[in-house]
Amino acid sequence: MRLGEGGQFDARNPSNSLLTVAPIESFGFLTDSPTTITTQDSTLLVPPLKSLSLIGGHLDFQGTLPIQFDDLNIYAMFATSLLKTTGGTLNLAANGSSGEVIVSNNDLTITGQGGDISLNRTLVDTSSLGSGNLNIRGGRLQMQDSTLQTNTLGDFNGGLMDIQLTESLYATSDPNHLGLQSFSSKALGSGHGGSIAIQVPELTLNRVELAANPMTAAKGGSTNLEVTRLSLLEGSGISNATVGGESGLLTINATESILISGYGVGSGIRNAIPFTDLPSHIDSSTYSSKPGGDINISTGRFDLVGGIITSGSLSEGNGANIIIQAENVNLTAGAIISTSSVTSGGLTGNILLDVTDTLFISGRRDGTFFIPASDLRIDNNSSGISSASLTSTGGQLNLTAKTIHLTEEAVITASSLGSTKRISSLNLQTDNLLITEGGQINSSNSNVLYEELFQFFGIGDSGDINIRAKHLTLSNQHPRLQHTGIFSNTYSQGLGGNINVQTDFLDIQGNSTISARAYGTGDAGQINLQAQKVKLTQHGSISTAAIQSGGGNIELTGLSELMYLDNSEIITSVTSGQGSGGNITIEKPQFAVLNQGQIRAQADAGHGGNIRIVAEQFIKSPESLISASSRLGLDGEVNIDSPTVDMNAFLVVLPGGFVEAQLRQCTSEEIENPSTFKVDLTRDRAPPFEKFLKLK
Fold this sequence. Notes:
There is one protein chain. The protein is mainly beta and about 700 residues long. The chain is built from 1 helix and 55 strands. It has a 26-stranded parallel beta sheet that branches. It has a 19-stranded parallel beta sheet, with no helix packed on it. The chain has a 4-stranded antiparallel beta sheet with strand order 1-2-11-12, with no helix packed on it.
């Protein structure tokens, strides 16, 4: 032991020792195999505000009985294997080689190679009126049914749980003990809660919780994870949720990858809230009048396999924002990123995803998903990104990626369910947007992702959908998946949101659609498309519709090359009532081609919508239809500003009859003036319109 003021104690060479009353500055190890410290069902306890340090080559703490928590699973009460200081500092350091463990200002530093630390059914506790500090240093930390607890119980501010390891941290629990609080730094009094900081290359949580929750009106501490790889498995979670005060920030920096996968089978209690079959999760919800802490995540590859990231406002507090920066993000098997609010006071949090490569969303959840604080179980929930506002200000969804791909009934949705005029909006910016096989982007005043949760439709306006994509493809090859595309819906007196798309090439095929509909008394939103090329095939459609209100307009502008409808349609319609049909405007494509295509603006008792088409060349097959009509009201007008090309003029009827000739065998020498037929293959001649019809 190296002491201050030049003091030293050397157990091997006592004659070299010079003892002083100064504090210990470091513990030295002279061999490459320092001795292990082992306990079995032991209690190591120091007086309040004093320090307890266990420093050796390896540390091994074993308990026989499970840790006992209170009835709400908030606070660890008893353990047969216990390390405790009340409000003091507790140090655990494993040094696996020669070197020093330096102690300074409530911090630890290892100069040698880190050793192993094992905790089995062990409670490490520094909780007090103001929690003490917990410092852990080593190579690997393995925790089985164990808890690190630094809760603040009174009116003093909490300390820091600081874990620094050179290799890995693995924490797990028995399958019958779901929701085990393996890392707990809660505010249970009036003082601020302590913070949690973990720095390790490999962090794996399996069926356990890491929680820094304010359970009272106090402010919660922050959580900061600096890792290379993070895995949350079988119902594990990181929780910043508050049922009392303001949550602290939750920051995760994983340089390589994050995996949030699976769920814990069975029932339990998490933050005093019961759950069943809870998926692996990251949560910063607020159940109080205070705001939730923002979630900031930075990583390389981010995989959510049935996992969830949530920020909910379930009381008067504002919901937390979710901010994710990653190279690739994959949401599969019912994975969810969600912000929501269910009261008129709290604001819905925003979602910001900045993905440098691909955002991929696919599939549905096997089994059920339980919503905390309710009795609801949702079956086969889709993977998706959602912002849902019940009565308060809606959140914003801002998604940026090189490629965004939604498939197999995946959704991106913004729902405004209340009467507020401050509505959710959905903004996407990408090079390639692919929506296939039941995938959809949706803005409405009902809820899509949790439609079983909300049994009513909102009365507010729907938010806008704003998309900027170089290439936008909608495709559906499975007839049973009828809702593939981009949708803006209103189900009440609220106005439908507009769909605004800027793209170089819009390709809609196979029963896919861009649609704005009004199912109530509110007007349908408009569809505004700016594209160089638009291609609709195999029953693709662009449509607005209203049942008893006004239909939305459809505008296609910026068409410098081609607008092509093949067995597809562009329609505005009002099916009943006095509402006027929406107008359709198609401006300045070099070629507008309809092959069994339809452009219709129709109404019931109101005025039919107007259709205006401006094109350098307008080509329409005989089976195509352009109509502006009203069943009981005045028909709309159809104006086509283009030299119309009649496809019938290209058909030549050959004369009938047969010519019979007497055939005989002959040779070329018997023909006096043989004729020739020559094919010139040296010239590359493209068929007419090929450069416009041959789309990427």
